[in-house]
Structure formats: structure tokens, C-alpha cells
Design goal:
The chain is mostly beta strands and 114 residues long. It is 0% helix and 50% strand. The protein is built from no helices and eleven strands. Strands 2, 4, 5, 6, 9, 10 and 11 form a seven-stranded mixed β-sheet that branches. Strands 1-3-8-7 form a four-stranded antiparallel β-sheet, with no helix packed on it. It is globular, with a radius of gyration of 13 Å. The relative contact order is 0.32.
Amino acid sequence: QEQLVESGGGVVQTGGSLRLSCAASTMFFSISALNWYRQAPGKEREWVAGINGIHGSGDTTYAESVKGRFTISRDNAKKMVYLQMNSLKPEDTGVYYCNQVDMWGQGTQVTVSS
């Protein structure tokens, strides 16, 4: 069964850091673009960061709100994707989801206290 499983969420103070991980048991992992999304309470899910597959040279893109603070990376051998989050702000609070094509993980909660 193909699935994505996120981990690494938690509670952190403003200015702190967290590293999210997503373990994939999916097909075509290395050639697939991977994304992180987040959903804050009462808001729609929003795209946070993306990383291309090997044919796209692993290029990365970021939402303006996280650019310079978040870093997405991947390890194709381990079928893992990561999101390093630094200088966290209260507005970064939400459930963070890993995405590959039309597959989603269950999400991991990130709470940034002020």
C-alpha cells in the first residue's frame, strides 16, 4: 500500500526550529515532485514548498511567506523528504502535510507559541 507518513511536529517558541520528515512507501518516488502543504485552523490548505524529482534536478521552490526560513530537501535512496523550518513564527502554526502527486500523508501538527 502506497502511503506518506509525516513526523517531527511539535510545540516550539517563536524563533525556534523544527525539522519535519516524510517517509514514503510510494512508487516513482525519485522522479516525482514532492511538496509540503500546511493548513491553519479555519483556513484552507496552502502550499509551502516543493522539490522536483531527478529529471528536474531537484530544484526547489517556496511560498513567499517561508522563503529564506524553510528548506525542503529529499533523500531518494531512503525515500524521505524533509522540511527544515527556522525562525518560526506564530503564523506558521498548522498541520503540515507531505504530498506526492495525488497522495497525502495524515499530517503533523506544528504549533508556534508567541
